Amino acid sequence: MRLYALAVYLFLYLPIAVIAVFSFNAGRHASQFTGFSVQWYGKALSNPFVTEALWTSFVVALSSALIASVFGTMAALALQGMKGRVRMVADALIYVAVMVPGIVIGIATLIALVTLFGWINPLLARLAPEGQAPQLAMGYGSLIAAHALFSMSLVIIILRARLAGMDRSLMEASADLYAPPFATFWQVTLPLIFPGILAGFLLSFTFSFDDFIIAFFVAGSETTLPIYVFSSIRRGVTPEINAIGTMVLAVSLILLVAAQLTLRRGIKTGAQ
Amino acid sequence: MQSQIDPGAQGQTGDRPLIAEFRAATKRYGAVLAADALSFGIGKGEFLSFLGPSGCGKTTALRMLAGFEVPTSGDVFLDGERVTDVPAYRRPVNMVFQHYALFPHMTVAQNIAYGLMQRRPRPDRAEVARKVDRALDMVRLSGFGPRRIWEMSGGQQQRVALARAIVNEPKVLLLDEPLAALDRKLRREMQIELQTLQRQLGITFVLVTHDQEEALSMSDRICIMRSGRIVQAGSPLALYDQPINRYVADFVGKSNFIDGVVSALSGEGGQIETASGYRFEGRVSGVLAPGAKASLSIRPEQIDLANSAHPGAEPVTVINRIFLGEHTEYLVRHAALGDLLVLVARQAEAAAGSFAPGAAAFVAWKPETALILPQD
Lengths: 272, 376
Fold this sequence. Notes:
Chain A is an all-alpha fold. The longest helix of chain A has 34 residues, at 48-81. Chain A has 11 helices and no strands. Chain B is built from 10 helices and 20 strands. Chain B has 2 domains: 7-241, P-loop containing nucleotide triphosphate hydrolases (Rossmann fold), CATH 3.40.50; 254-374, CATH 2.40.50.140. By secondary structure, chain B is α+β, with helices and mostly antiparallel strands. Chain B has a 6-stranded mixed sheet, sandwiched between helices. In chain B, strands 11-12-13-20-14 form a 5-stranded mixed barrel. Chain B is globular and about 75 Å long. In chain B, a hairpin with a 3-residue loop joins strand 17 (327-334) and strand 18 (338-345). In chain B, helix 3 runs parallel beside helix 5 (154-166) and helix 4 packs across helix 5. The A-B interface holds A 167, 169-170, 172-181, 183-184, 187-188, 191-192, 269-272 and B 66-68, 87-90, 93-95, 97-99, 101-105, 114-115, 118-119, 150, 164, 168.
């Protein structure tokens, strides 16, 4: 039984470990380890295609995580105030949104945006002077929108749990102590759910930074880091790709741990 | 049963001017009537308690006063002003919540200063600090200002909640079962402290509780509630000595009840006849007609327990004996009247000797200490 478990873990983590180990390989070939070196990290980070893709990924992840945190928080607060069946349906839809396969979200977003652009672009062409009409197309905007949409459900799920665990009488106490609703939100509700918002932001960032499937459909001419890795793999796995993969892994792990820690800290301070 | 009894039975606010008033305040949640046309006044500087079992509407009454519930119909007045639709944050009252509702992300001092800091224009910081210190002093927590809430014990949190409310000098201080979460000894201490504080500050206190001992020991006046109505209001002594029905007698202090019908009425006194043919005299309290169902109420401390028969005494068997320190509580069984609770004072027991379970004994009480009450 123990051997069986060990096999499962090996199967899960060995490929990842191999990538991490070979990213420090001095030699060019992935088949034999010829010595320790960080030269591939240097090569990867001085490659303009890599840095550009990294920048794109960073901007998309940051923007979509910010949007998802703000709107996810608003949605979670609104859901908290709703009652009965409406809330149940809304909650269920949010869980479904997380479980829908990425490929379905990717295709659906692509079709939706293409259709939308198909309607709007002729309108813009008619409104603007000849030849100067802006053309809506896939790119940063569609990437950020698609990622924000998915991440929002992550933020909502985290915050719903946090809000449900919060003592309602805290808000009443604030009102009783002369704070109008907005002051109560600012001074009591927001500080208490902030760890949840931060954890949601970090998870959203990680999701967007790693995502390949949705990005592949809606990126247009933009190249995010996962898309770059995918396209360069077709020319063979180089140690440079290993280095990039290891960096992405490190960033993701750090952010995930940070999200867990903020949530746990938040639970402690939020406890009665 | 009628809810609006004559002013005498409602209990007086004394010579005090009114600080708060309910006028036919009704609160309905769907089919449930949580407050049924409540009409009564609260006197300035009074310590008033709402007493009743859970679901009797006492908390709803308090929350209508705080501004957390808007009456379905009727009005609420505070200091002569109609506040029925005024939101909680504009009412000059403060509440001590059942589980304290202290802000966990703030220090003790920040919690206490919260109400003061909402004032516009913002008050002077030094002035706030001074008031916070004085409030901490008043609840005997000097020096605890910089502490975090979770570093405080339950009793200390209770004091912080109290300080957070009184620092604002509210016109009425509302207390929602404030001592329910404390252990017995601490509860006793806080009861005395609350009472002292109320006298010092002269603020009107309105307390909601299901603990009759708490209400009896602290209040100037108690409103006994049932099904959204006030059954009887009056001083603790008046409620104890002249309950208007069995419900009140049962809720205020311990009592023995013997059920029957009214067989005779004469002025203040009357007679009750049980199903098994026993007849007992007693004072009549509440509204009764001959032939009506009634209960004879005898307080446990009014019953004499003797080991020899004498005229008017009834034979019983001792079932149980509980030593309570200054008193001993006996449970005795009468063949026809059922179980009776008897409280024997220490000195009396020392003189007459104690009874072991299973022993035969005789009980008797003076007719003027027994009350004949409507059953409902």
